[in-house]
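Input chain follows. Return structure tokens only.
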Amino acid sequence: MALEVAGLIAGYGPVTVLRGVDFRAEPGRITCLMGRNGVGKSTFLKCLMGLVPATEGTIRLDGTALEGLPAHEVPRHGLAYVPQGRRLFGPLTVAENLAIGGLVQGNDRATLAHVLTLFPRLGERLSQVAQTLSGGEQQMLSIARALCLKPKVLLLDEPTEGLQPSMVSLIQDAIRTLTGQGVAVVLVEQRVDAVLRLADSVAFMVAGRVEETRDVKGLAADDPVFRNYVGV
């Protein structure tokens, strides 16, 4: 019952970005991807979702092969993706954005109610146009929309970037709640303090591959591993 990736190779046209990625994400755990800019973190998430096609390698979720599936089929198997920059339907309301997220699962009312317990602020703003929300509220909506898929694995690309501390705490609390419910979370995050506070393990990427995976227990902010792989 895990996401398992082996030997994943992908890129853009003649440019190879992922060079044999091996990776594993387990239910109920938060795995953080860290690395310098340009090492392939965001491309890796897009490849998992079928947005960047894999040229070699395998992607398995609960034993089901996902590599080669068209992007619109991947969410049906339990992957949900929150890209960097939110990518909401700005002119639509909060409720309409959530309904779009729930299309794959038939817009189950129980699922929507559960999502709104994680982000009660959105429940107060269902009729509000998405582009008029604050930055933090828009990020909540982006995550909530993905959760309407009832995912087994949630992929988050720098979800707290540029947010005020109170919003960061709310989003991190929601992520912890999800893992408590058995969801596997894959998180791209560059801030060491956030990683140490939130993640269970860290996969360090270098030049298109996962060079090392470490359990967060025993790591400290001044550990040389962060300077070696992230430059901080």
